[in-house]
Amino acid sequence: MWKKSKVTDQTAAGQKVDAPERGHPNDKGIRKKSKVPGVMITQFEAELPEGMTTPDFSRKPIAITIQEGKSTAFKAIVVGNPKPTVTWTRTNGEIVFHPDTCRQNYSEASHEHTLEFPKVAPEDADTYKCYATNDYGRAVCTAVLNVIEVGFSKAKELQKTYGDDIPDFLRKKLKKRAPKVGEQGQNEPTPEEKVWEILMNADKKDYERICAEYGITNFRGMLKKLKQMKQEQDVDTAEFVSHIDTLKHIEEDDDEASIDLDLELKELNSKIFLYKDGEMVAFTKEECDEIKHSLKQVGKKHDSVLYSMDVEGGIVFTADFKVPDVDFAIKLQEVKADERQDALFVCVLTAPLNEIKWFGKNALLSNGEKFEISVSEDKLIHKLIIRDCLPLDAGIYAAVAGIKSCNAWLVVEADKEASSKGKKAARKNTTAGLGDDEDLLRIAKEQQERYQKEMEERLEIAKKAQSERDAAEEAARLEAQAAKKRSAETKAAAKAAAKAKKAEEGVDESASFQVGAHVDVEELSEDNEEAGQNSLFMETVEVDKVTSGDSPPLQDKVKGNDHGEETAVKQKGERCGTNEKRPKVKTVDAEDAAVGNDLGEKTAKQKSEKSGKKEIPPKVKFPDEEAPAVGNHHGEETAEQSSEKSGTKENCPKEKIGDVKDTHVESDKGEEEEEQPPAGKRVRIRQGPLIEETIIDPGVHFLVGLSDCKAIIGEEAELVCKLSSEDCEGIWYKDGEEIKSNEGMTIIKEGSYHKLKLHKVPEEFSGKYKFEADGRKTEALVVVEDPPRFDPEELKTFITPITVKKGHKATFKLSYMGREPIKVQWFLEGEELSDEANIKLETSDGYTRLLLIKLQRKDSGEVKLKLKNEFGTAEALTELIVLDKPTPPMGPVEIVEASSSAIEIKWRPPKDCGGCKIGNYILERQQVGRNTWKKVGPIGPLAKYRDLDVDHGRRYCYRIRVETEMGTSELMETEDIQAGTKAYPGPPSTPRVVSAFKDCINLSWSAPANTGGTNILGYNLEKRKKGSNLWGQVNPPEEMIRAKGFAVKDVVEGMEYEFRVAAINNSGAGEFSTPSEFVFARDPKKPPGKAIDFKVTDSSYTSLCLSWIKPKEIKGVEDEAKGYFVEIRPAENTEWNRCNSNLVTTNFFTVKNMKSMAMYWVRVIAVNDGGEGEPQELNNYILAMPPPVRPRFTDTKIKSFMVVQAGNSARLTMNFEASPWPEVTWLKDDVPVSKKVTISNAEGTSQLLIPSSERSDSGVYTIVVKNIVGQETFSIEIRVTDEPKPPGPVEMEENVPGTVTISWAPSPDEKRDDRLHYMVMKRDSSKRTWNTVADHIFNNKFTACNIMPGREYRFRVYAKNDMGSSKPTESPKWLVPIKKEKFTVNMPRSKSCDLQCPPKFLVPLKMHTAPQGYECYMSCALKGDPTPHVTWLRDNISLNTNTNYYISNTCGVCSLLILRVGSKDTGEYKVVAENPMGRAECSTKLTVRE
User: Fold this and answer.
1) Residue 932 C-beta-side C-alpha neighbours within 13 Å
2) How confident is residue 1138, by pLDDT bands cut at 50, 70 and 90?
3) Crossing angle, helix 437-505 and helix 207-214, to 10 degrees?
């Protein structure tokens, strides 16, 4: 069972959380919402230091539901700077961390914080909180752990809810129904309990079926006990439930099954439980204002189970869910129907079923104008009729019975003739799919007989099982009886010894004969009592419990004689309280009871008074007797038992009266000594043998009950039922009143069938009809309907086609009957007609008329009258034919022969003959060059003519007209035809190899399209070997081939040949055809096998790449493949389409021109000279789409922040890749964007456009790209702003000497722009420029330091945001006056300093290598005081006076520049510095490169 946290699992409406949510120590701060839903962030400080952030969850833990004993874990990823610390808490209690129960871990690799449960226990179910905390804030989120507890029971749930203080009224329910805590397997209902649960809520008409299924034979006993149980359930339910509505038993729909009921509770906190076969199961719940609860059980595998629901222990509803044990004896077959024809699907079941579900192209079908669903009287033959089939109706239709199904194709063939004329096809009155009804009836009859036989066998098995249970219980009872007998004998011996001892002491003994009885009292629950019965309908005696002092002393009257006079033992029970049920006492057999004489018998009678107003009659059970009765020959005993009234509402205690024991009788010389029973003990003496248990014959019962019937006014209807006996008579009732045969109805009995025939049903025949026989009854409703219908005689006249001439009028009229209002519609060729200039509609009560004026030929077609009211529809069809002149004959004219003696031509008939038969064709002939036309005359209705009156070489032209009874058509003129010119025929078709053998090759071809104006006389055939250029004629030159085929026998085995053919007419032989394919002269090959490893290598939205492996060659079975054909079939079609017209010799192929996202089946066929092999199909269908790709954004640099000036447009373009086509969604702040925003999606890209942005458009925009593989999101913050307005007036004050505090009024945009800040600039009188002294100020005050007295200062304040700065607001002048003091100058004493030093090189010369012709620059640095004299030397030759070198000495830096370096400049360069204090040298070398 489910064990959930109290926070999330409210068992009933109004339940409160037991434990309050505990807070965190740092709850104070600024609350803000995270981007991750369900995460709350608390910020501890108003302003965060730069670079620091509050904690947040990038992935929060999710709710988990898991079975007890399995392992699970909560996982979370947190972010924040500094790194947050993660802690876990739970709502109820503390988390106990232990390696075996719960542990907290952190993974450095994945940065995941986990709370792991190695083995989940029921007590772990709770709401858990995860806290992420650092110095600047805290983030928290919750996750729920639900545990499915194994072995969970209602007792445990009640004890957990109420603790040890379970109220008495619930403790009573708990004891009666709930198993003991910890007890396993005790909550399974016994078969007897299960059948009572089913009967409690079953319809009355299902009682007989349930009794037969579970082997119940005592029908009257069942009804009696069922009535008692319903009264008890009403009492239990009334304590908690106000009323129950909308009770619906389990309904199965596709893969779901549901129980529906609405109930109103008296107490809001009442708990609701749902049981399956006695074991509590979970259920979903939804709260509403009317305090109603709905339960739903969902599953894909349906078992035969019993569902029940109870409130606080009281059962309110029980439903039996049993999948029908039915299959299809005859499955649906494929139906091929013409357009506008009806189609019929038929199936036969193996067992009766009132209705099955029909599906058409995955949609559930129902009765209507389009579909008609019917079922036979025996409920075995089910039919579906599809009216007026159109090409759109083609597809797969399925029938579903229970969990079995079958399907078949409906193929609708379009009317090509009608479509070519541009008209809708005419409605057809035939039905496709009609078979032999006699075969269906025969199979249905066989199935019905088989089903009845199975039901009888099941009943016999149930009876046998019941008898075996009874025998086992009887054996157990006898064994217990024997044990009691032995115990009784021991007690009797002890009592006899005690009596003898009393006799010796002189104690007076009672004169009357007393019998001691041992009574066992045991309180039995209702369930245990029912489970302990030997049979479902054997009854037990119920007697009130008696204790000492409850009633007056028992008066026993004993009369003894030798004739066995009998006395009656009476039991009288007084009332046991108002409105209370009588307690039940189970009477067990008596042993060793002393009774009368040898000839006498004793009887016991019990009488009990009623136990309140709603007294339930006691149940009496008579077990068998085994032990003999022992007694004397003189007396009989009587015993009375009575019980007093009980004024409380408690049920009277239940008592089990055991066997009569401990009775001992002694007779000594005629004296009788008897023992007095103890005070207050009641004694029951059984007299006579017990009645044996017997199984009562169920008697007459119904094999087939009545079924609801719909009758049409004025027509016949029939109600039929079948009994199990042919000799039983019955009575018919209508609405509770008995009916008999009369003029309107006839009662018929045919063997075990009883029929009620209703003749010319009037409306008053509607009602509930009942048939009753031998206490059994069956009911059915007769609903009299009055649908629209036509008079049969008038309908025959109406359907006769009407023929009128063009321009005339046509009238259609028909009377009808049916209940008003009736909607009348007229249709012409499927289009509804309405009142117009040429159309007049008239409708009155029971009559309608259509008048069509000025008809044209195009108005011809089907006329339909459709009537509709609340009961159904009716249609009448007829045909309108408008006659007109025919159209001209259709060309072009085909020249059959144009010889010197004859011209023969033929043509096509006219497209429209005007509705009449063609009488004649009228021809006229003109010789080219003349102006006159010669009338050839009518030539008959055949579209051909042979003109023998021609001159050789002359040309002729013909005019052709069509003549009908409506007139003559326009003419068709032919082209000029010359008589007697040589015209060779065109080439025939390419020869086709029909078959090939080692000694013969059979060929065939077609005649040429161009015969040359004359008949084809024959053909010449030539052959050529492969690799040769020579063609050889096959047939002898003088013998042409007359047929369009030839067997070539002049071949060599193993050689490869090709063939060509030429046609011959009167002019001679024409051109040869194209050569045939090469063919081997060898015996036929075996077709190849299936291709191997057929698979898809790549795909797109319009193409599919396939590959395969060549099939294996098996000698004598499968030969080598020569090529391949690839075929595809769309899922909605039945025909395969070949993708390649020529053979593919490679092992791969690309299918093109596919529809995007369409579903295809694909196969490949290997082919060789032996024919086509078996096709190899892919295991599954293929979707025309690229391989699945998870959405991914392809832009490498995507900005996550954008600033837009108000009034401008904002445009975001995101590029991505995904397959299949993804669904792209744009969100603004986690809600869909407004209609103002324009979204444009194209292949691989999506664009968001805000035409004219406003400040309200600011926010976080998120794009979600999702397909079947996954989804990807990206968020961009758009801030719409404008140049800020300047701040208000600036004020200044000095709070601290040397500083000035500047304050200003805020900018008007400060409230609308949270990123607006201020910048302060300063200028003093000593400078001309403005300097920035402060920026990014988010308040309205700033303190400037280092303010010098005597200087004038000015300040400017700017408002800044993402768009830029505002105009400045300038402050007034600020001046701190100088306090004047006496000026005194103190001259410091100067000290003399000697700075003289000898020359010293600070930076020496460097080595140089210069290219020839380039300049070279040498330099060094030196110091010395006095300034030294510097001399440059090259190879110890002074260069100071050389004008080719530029020498300088500036501030101690000596340099030498050579403008154009030559080879002569190579050498050692030296610098010599001299002053009075000394001398210094520095040298280097110069190398010149050529």
Assistant:
1) 3
2) very high
3) 70
Answer yes or no: is pLDDT of 155 > 70: no
- Cα distance between residue 1363 and residue 1205, in whole Å: 7
Burial of 286 from C-beta contacts in 10 A (0-12 / 13-18 / 19+): exposed
- Give the tens place of pLDDT for each residue, 853-873: 989 988 899 999 999 998 889
* pLDDT tens digit sequence for 420-437: 555 667 777 778 877 777
Q: Of the candidates 957, 1062, 945, which has an alpha carbon nearest to the alpha carbon of residue 1012? A: 1062
- How high is the pLDDT of residue 214? 77
Distance CA 294, CA 286 (A): 7
Structure tokens at 473: 């219980």
The whole-angstrom separation of Cα 1145 and Cα 1445 is: 87
- Other C-beta atoms lying within 10 Å of the C-beta of residue 740: 9
Q: Is 188 exposed, middle or buried (0-12, 13-18, 19+ CB in 10 A)?
A: exposed
Predicted local confidence at residue 1044, as pLDDT: 93
Q: How many Å apart are CA 137 and CA 57, to the nearest integer? A: 13
Bridge pairing between strands 1369-1370 and 1056-1065: unpaired
Least confident segment among 4-8, 120-124, 999-1003, 1005-1009: 4-8
Q: How far apart are CA 289 and CA 13, in angstroms?
A: 10
Residue type, 692: E
User: What are the beta bridge partners of residue 265?
Assistant: 241
CA-to-CA separations, 156 to 280, 519, 698, in angstroms, rounded: 11, 36, 43
Helices 207-214 and 191-201: crossing angle in degrees, nearest 10, is 170
Contact 96, 102 (CB under 8 A): yes
Between CA 839 and CA 437 the distance in angstroms is 45
CA distance 637 to 360: 81
Q: Shortest CA distance to 659 belongs to which of 688, 626, 631? A: 626
Q: Which residue has the tokens 């050889």?
A: 1032
Q: How far is Cα 1193 from Cα 1274, in angstroms, rounded to an integer?
A: 9
> Alpha-carbon distance 494 to 661, whole Å?
12
Work out the burial of residue 1455: count CB atoms within 10 Å of its CB; fewer than 13 is exposed, 13-18 middle, 19 or more buried.
middle
Over its C-alpha atoms, the chain yields an Rg (Å, rounded) of 56
Mean pLDDT within 526-549: 36
d(CA 737, CA 195): 33
How far apart CA 149 and CA 945 sit, in angstroms, is: 96
Return the closest-CA partner of residue 200 out of 232, 176, 178.
232
| Cα–Cα dist 886/969, whole Å | 5
Whether the Cβ atoms of residue 575 and residue 645 lie closer than 8 Å to each other: yes
Element (H or E) spanning 1190, and its range? strand 1189-1193
**How many angstroms from the chain centroid is the CA of residue 1438?**
105
**CA dist., res. 1429 & res. 986, Å (int):** 118
Residue 1342 tokens read as 């700033």
Burial string for 296-334 (b: 16+ CB within 10 Å, else e) reads ebeeeebeebbbbbbbbbbbbbbbbbeebebebbbebee
Helices (H) and strands (E) in the chain, counts: 9, 105
Q: Dihedrals φ, ψ of 448, to 5°? A: -65, -45
Residue among 1303, 1301, 1325 nearest 1375 (CA):
1325
Enclosing H/E stretch for 207: helix 207-214
Find, among 878, 874, 760, the residue nearest to 818 by Cα: 874
Cα–chain center distance at 246:
26
* Burial (CB count <10 Å: 0-12, 13-18, 19+), residue 71: exposed
Reduced to 3 states, what is the DSSP secondary structure of residue 301? coil
Residue pair 174/160 in contact by the 8 Å Cβ criterion:
no
Angle 1027-1033-1038 from CA coordinates, rounded to 5°: 175
- Counting Cα atoms < 13 Å in the Cβ hemisphere of 1039 gives 4
